[in-house]
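Re: that chain you flagged

S.,

Sorry for the slow reply, it's been a week of failed gels. I finally had a moment to sit down with the sequence you sent. For the record, here it is as I used it:
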Amino acid sequence: MKIATWNVNGIRKREPEVLAWIEQERPDVLCLQEIKAKTEQVPASLCELAGYWCYWHGASGYSGVSLQVSKSLCPGEPKFSHPEFDHETRVVEVAFDDLVIASIYVPNGGKDFAAKLRFLEAMEGYVAGHRQSGRQIVLCGDMNVARSDADVHPKERKPGVIGQRPDERALFEKVLAQGVVDVARALQPDARDIFTWWAPWRSMRQRNIGWRIDYVLATEHLASRATSCPSFREVGTSDHAPLLATFA
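Prediction finished late last night. Pasting the structure tokens below so you have them in one place:
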């Protein structure tokens, strides 16, 4: 099973490259963030994506998430929904059997840092609730937190800057402590260059001077079956790269 996540920073601008990458990788589940479009503004080629159940959850020009689920994985139309802590079109989840997959876009925190902390606190309860029900869960998306200094290029490490602050890192660790695993880090515990976001200037992406703020988080049973979770730095024109987790 292949589960992908990608902050596209505007789906209308990225339509051709998203379609090309889907055709190339054929993920079973694709989670997109920051689509910046209402459902009726999403290109028809993506709304009517052959072989997928598609759900778009967005508002014009801001935020927004989506989920695409392969019909080979789920022949019948799955149930899409939104947890109570969703606001500003930031969360959509899909459930089938005992598995829940969510596409999540955590607030950046630049305009309202307290709201970001509340969102991360709600994520902790959200994961705990699913774990108590016995469900497997996969959280995919732009979490807007670099877990540690190892997840930031040395030239980009700035103590106290939003995205690297101790308080938000501590809350993110509490989410993980509810029983989900950071798949990319589990597979590459010593890697120091698996970034997913780069500032769009001074050739930061080409030089791989970035941050790791996009994640696939999976419950322990699923995470133990993960075989790869690369960041596709060479793909697309968004400031984020797609991340693709493969599970045996």
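What I noticed first: The mean pLDDT is 96.

Talk soon,
D.
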